[in-house]
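Reading a protein record of the kind used here takes only a little practice. These numbers are not coordinates but entries in a learned vocabulary of local backbone shapes. Here is one such record, which you should read through line by line.
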Amino acid sequence: MISLVLLFIVFCVACGGNSNDTSTDTDTNANTNTDTSTETDTDTDTESKPVKYVITWIDENGSTLSSNEVVEGEVPNYNYEKSDTAEWDYTVEGWSLSQDGEVLSSIPAAKENATYYAIVSKVKQKYTVIFNSNGGSNVDSQVVEYGSLAVLPDEPTFEGHKFMGWCTDEGGENPVDFSQAITGDTEYYAIWNDVVDVKALLNSLLSGYNLSPYNYIPESMKPDFSANLVKKDDIITDYSNGFTNISDISYGFGEQYHLVLDNLEQTNLFYNVLTVVEGLSATSISAFNNYFDKNPADTAHHSFENGIYNITIDFDGKTISYILDYTAELPLVGEQTVQIALTMDIETSERVVRIQLGDANALAYTITENSYEFAIKYLGVRRAMFTIERDDNGDIYGSIYEYLTVSSAEIASCAEFYITEDYVSVVGNKASGLIGFTGYINELYDVNTGKLLGYEVQETLSAVKYDTLWFNLNDIGGISSIKYQPAEGKEAAKVFINGSSTQWQAKKALLSRRFDIELRTQYVYSYDATEQKYVEHKIEVPMIFVQEKYYDTFIDDVEATNDVTVSVEVSNEDLEKILEDYDTLIPIFVENKDKVTVDIIIAYIGDKITF
């Protein structure tokens, strides 16, 4: 404004100060003021406010951590820390655009409203369990995940002393309960006693009762063997919709060997309660030793209580007994009165264990140096006896007799098995896939892999005896895929192979077939990581059979009937073993299958022990 006034004065001087130009000057001033006002308004409009966006931060459980505004172009940031717990070690991996999504390499500059989700990983905390041997031989520490169990270690040794058990205190007042989960660093102390005959006998009884029959079974023949496990989602249950590659089929154990495994698994409920004995053994031995030291005699009998447990120890000069009575809530069967009775013959070291759960469930088993035998009754519907023994060559023989009550009907099943360095042979009479089956089956497995090599079936239909060999389709060369449409009404099952629309044809033989493909029952196993347990799956799988007397023409018969060249990829040695077992083991099985009755099983189990 000052510069305009000066300009005006100069202009007036130049014009001689003519007063007639006053109105013009006034107009000029007015115009000048108007222009100045316009410039000021323009400057104000061009000033813009910063753009802001709302950024929301969500934790791994879906809860909002923070929600704040960020200026456009600014990189949002939120420092999230997850505190570890006694159970979990947490790691904040970063942020994602979705719950459980991929972690972003970096958070972008703000250009819109955005939500970020915390991605957090966790692993179980691990704790050290120290076994203080209190002067005895060294016992390795164990690293155990939170919530898991420490494993009862091998007993330490201490010259001139007998190991009595582990306690949580050096004074031996509180026995370790190995069924209790580990939740922090822990130290256990070995409890020792001087070597005294009766005391040693009791210790021997309590340390040798829990031999599992699984100790006799090869690792490859157990459900948890890695090669036997399948992914649940990979199990095929329907072969009728399109063709299934043979390589995708999960093959497992046959029904005869499953009978053996099923009865072993049924005993787990009983074996689980034996962990109580582990927790009480140290206290029991100490209490009995104190009693025996004050009451020396050829016979001894002592009863006492420890919490909910009533403990009786008896020694009559020939047999030492340990009886434990209590009431507890048990998985699957609810609250039950429980009796665990352990006895040992001091001359033969034979141990007998009897477990009673309520009135309907009981297990009794006998352990010797090279044998194991148990009988079981379960929920009033299952009675079974299992025997297994090892000979001087290390070969193993076992048998299982099972009686099931189904809808008031008594169903009897039996199996015998033989384990050598190379094979597991199983003979039985169970075949759920064959209605009214009264024949026999011998299965053969490779002891190194647990693989079913094949089996042979003996059955009689319409007074005609049939001997049929069965093989998994993954052991048949020339068949790469299959489609199987089950029988419907009067329509027989239809089979198609190798992507062909032409139906598979079986070659007829008088009143039967020389060969064909059918579905048969097998059992496979998966691991449930959430429940931390192995899950059994009963499935139907396609197998091929051929009558033994037509085996030599099998390949030619298939080619002539179906215009496909096949081969049996089971080795000659394995095939000869199947045929040999069929000829030698089935007659033995037929002779033995009725030897163990329900009455024998019940008598073996016996009754509760009372004094």
Observations:
- The radius of gyration is 41 Å.
- Residues 164 and 286 are 8 Å apart (CA to CA).
- Residues 219-605 form one domain.
